[in-house]
UniProtKB/TrEMBL annotation:
Keyword tags: Aminotransferase, Pyridoxal phosphate, Transferase
Protein known as: Pyridoxal phosphate-dependent aminotransferase
Domain Aminotransferase class I/classII large: 29-379
Organism listed in the record: Neptunomonas marina
Domain of life: Bacteria
Record's GO cellular component terms: cytoplasm
GO molecular function, one term: kynurenine-oxoglutarate transaminase activity
Length: 382
């Protein structure tokens, strides 16, 4: 028989899977895929066992367990001053990945244009394209990767349905300011353009900076989906629990997709997170210092290397320019790095539609001190 032509011709195996496989094959130190090599808080882990043995083993409500949605409403209000109704405006999803896919599927139609910024997280474009939309990719430039709002204004057409933001930004570590959000809000004021704000690293910001959430922006909130992930916040990426905040009308559309994509998310995990959020309400305030200590340690250890470190304001990623070591494209450099130093990085060219001629790779510093020290020791010798 003839199988149908692929609906996603540009999609192959993600760079994260490729690099994790190479790391395992070469027994290399893995600073590639973004996940911590340490566990989340013990009380959170223990709470899952408690809920499983207490019988919380059947389907959760489609939109998420009420206690978790209420805990999120309370958190968002305390951190950003944005008020979301737990019943109608907060939906628990299978990680941020499902929230992003469901939000895009809920609003993007054939012929729609979606503006996003390169380098862009790899899940956005396939979600747009499988729904018949096209992406308009605007490039952020090294070393600061700031948005050029005039370029955004110029890119808006009658077909623009959605703009995707990501702050703190993976892979560059840059953040959006209040002024950025105000500029966007003014630009969109007389339009029906929607915003999808990927804020999975909302609690990983450095040097005393405050995360500027679209959830706390009065003018943007009414047109926005705001997505986050407990995986990043509580070091539990494998649990795949995330959420989406959106006004009731947008949440209703998102839930139509969520209802048939996953229907509901693991009950004991949701209950455990809800308990932990109630018991440790200030956790999100403490996380920046935890990760800043790791960023500073990694940067200090790398200071004597021939890598040039780019500024990182948030996320648990550090970009480095390697041109003083080897002048080859980044994918080739990553392969060389595995073979010659036994360390795995992520090439950033894969996050661009048209990769610029830079020599930059991404390291993940969400690792224990011993791993960071061992990796840096290998890297400074290059
Ligand atoms: N968005 C960004 C920017 C990410 O880095 C990630 C990484 N995991 C995700 C979304 C997906 O989050 P989750 O693992 O909760 O699906
Ligand atoms: N967000 C993670 C990263 O950027 C990867 C998640 C995944 O493997 N899809 O490394």
């Amino acid at each position: 028989m003839n199988y149908p032509e692929t609906k996603l011709p540009k999609v192959g195996t993600t760079i994260f899977t490729q690099m994790s496989q190479l790391a395992a094959q070469h027994n290399a130190l893995d600073l590639s895929q973004g996940f911590p090599d340490f566990d989340g808080p013990t009380a959170l882990l223990d709470a899952v066992g408690h809920h499983i043995s207490s019988g919380a083993n059947q389907y959760a409500p489609m939109a998420g367990v009420p206690a978790l949605r209420e805990a999120i409403a309370e958190k968002v209000s305390r951190f950003y001053g944005g008020h979301y109704c737990a019943e109608r405006e907060i939906t628990i999803t299978s990680g941020a990945t499902e929230a992003l896919f469901a939000a895009i599927s809920a609003v993007v139609r054939t012929g729609d244009e979606v503006i996003m910024f390169d380098p862009a997280y790899d899940s956005y474009e396939p979600a747009v394209e499988i729904n018949g939309g096209t992406t308009v990719r605007l490039q952020l430039s090294a070393p600061h990767f700031k948005v050029d709002w005039q370029a955004v204004r110029d890119a808006i057409t009658a077909k623009t349905r959605l703009i995707i933001l990501n702050s703190p930004h993976n892979p560059t570590g840059t953040t959006l300011t209040q002024h950025d959000l105000d500029t966007l809000a003014d630009m969109l004021a007389d339009t029906d353009i929607l915003v999808l704000s990927d804020e999975v690293y909302e609690h990983i910001v450095f040097d005393g900076e405050q995360h500027q959430s679209v959830a706390g922006h009065e003018a943007l909130r009414e047109r926005s989906f705001v997505v986050s992930s407990f995986g990043k916040t509580y070091h539990i990426t494998g649990w795949k629990v995330g959420y989406c905040l959106a006004p009731a009308a947008l949440s209703a559309e998102l839930r139509k997709v969520h209802q048939y994509l996953t229907f509901a998310i693991s009950t004991p995990m949701q209950l455990a997170i809800a308990d932990y959020m109630a018991d440790a309400p200030n956790y999100g305030f403490e996380l920046p210092a935890f990760y800043q200590q790791k960023r500073d340690l990694f940067c200090r250890l790398m200071a004597s290397s021939r890598f040039e470190l780019l500024p990182t304001q948030g996320t648990y990623f550090q970009l480095v320019d390697y041109r003083a070591i080897k002048d080859v494209p980044d994918i080739e450099f990553c392969q060389w790095l595995i073979e010659h130093a036994g360390v795995v990085a992520i090439p950033i060219s894969v996050f661009y539609q048209t990769p610029p001629d830079t020599r930059i790779v991404r390291f993940c510093f969400a690792k224990g001190e011993a791993t960071l020290k061992a990796a840096a020791e290998r890297l400074v010798n290059l």
